[in-house]
Amino acid sequence: MTFENIILEKKEKIAYITINRPQSLNALNAPLLIELNKALENVEKDKSIKVIILTGSGEKSFVAGADIKEFTDLDVSQAEALSRDNQKLIFDKIENLNKPVIAAVNGFALGGGLELAMACHIRYASENAKLGLPEVTLGLIPGYGGTQRLPKLVGKGLANEMIFSAKMITAQRAKEIGLVNEVFPIEELLTKTTELAETISKNSPLAIEKAIEAVNFSNDSQAGFEKEIKNFGELFGLEDKKEGVNAFLEKRKPNF
Questions:
Q1: Which residues contact 99 (CB under 8 A, 6 or more apart)?
Q2: Is the pLDDT at 254 greater than 80, yes or no?
Q3: Residues 153 and 118 sit within 8 Å (Cβ to Cβ)
Q4: Residue of 4, 135, 213, 234 marked active site
Q5: Within 10 A of 175 (CB to CB), how many other CB atoms are there?
Q6: Taking the model in full, what pTM does it have?
Q7: Among 115, 161, 213, 234, which one carries the catalytic annotation?
Q8: How much is the pLDDT for 221?
Q9: Which end of the chain is less enclosed by CB atoms within 10 A, N or C?
Q10: CA distance linking residue 196 with residue 201, whole number of Å
Q11: pLDDT category, 104, cuts 50, 70, 90?
Q12: Catalytic annotation on 161?
């Protein structure tokens, strides 16, 4: 499958999706988002793929935000549709995908770029990464889930500070507040992200799928516990549980 604005590569159990508009610092535009949706659907259906790594081309930018030129002629109803449709097709889709998505944040992750990273299940960043939500400088607010996901990751106070001030933070500060998991030199970022993906890919894909569902319910305490209980029980009826337990008892590696 070939695209104009992204690159999709598959290597063994890992799919690499690279945002590829370096001339625009990988800014998100309508054609790119359509292609990204198609790529996500492709890897979601591919049973050989266990983990997805999402990154940007080059070393300057993961995604520097939305392509603001597309905002100039939108009216209220069109803007609402843009936010609703892209949240459903891209951002919510990533968060609820049945396979882990790891963001390798290389450089700027601003506006829609940070929102894209926050939709991923895990975030690794390069030392040169700069992260922020600058929408209020345009008279706007984040429209792709930023006001909802950021408080859940860093707390309401820090989220308000980032959104209201529109200030960028460093990768190290992002790690301190829990916005990214780890920070690496730019030349090591993809290698370290791949190492994590390889580790995850050895584990039960059915269990990981159920874990994603349960974790995504964690914001609602009662519903979250019920989802965990239900998914825990369901796994006892699936082959991965049988293989995993037998492998443990037989002192061998499981073959999922």
A1: 43, 44, 49, 50, 51, 52, 205, 208, 209
A2: yes
A3: yes
A4: 135
A5: 18
A6: 0.91
A7: 115
A8: 63
A9: N
A10: 9
A11: very high
A12: no
Instruction: For 183-232, write each residue's pLDDT tens digit.
Output: 999 999 999 999 999 999 999 999 999 999 999 988 776 776 787 777 77
Note the CATH number of domain 6-201. Answer: 3.90.226.10
CA atoms of 125 and 107, how far apart (whole Å) = 8
User: In sequence order, which ranges of 121-220 are alpha helices (DSSP H)?
Assistant: 146-154, 156-165, 171-176, 189-201, 205-216
User: What is the residue extent of each domain of the chain?
Assistant: 6-201, 205-249
Burial of 88: CB neighbours in 10 Å, binned 0-12, 13-18, 19+:
exposed
Is 234 a known active-site residue? no
Order of all β-strands in the sheet with 61-63: 61-63, 108-110, 130-132, 169-170
Confidence of residue 235 (pLDDT cuts 50, 70, 90): confident
Cα separation, 97 vs 62, in Å, equals 20
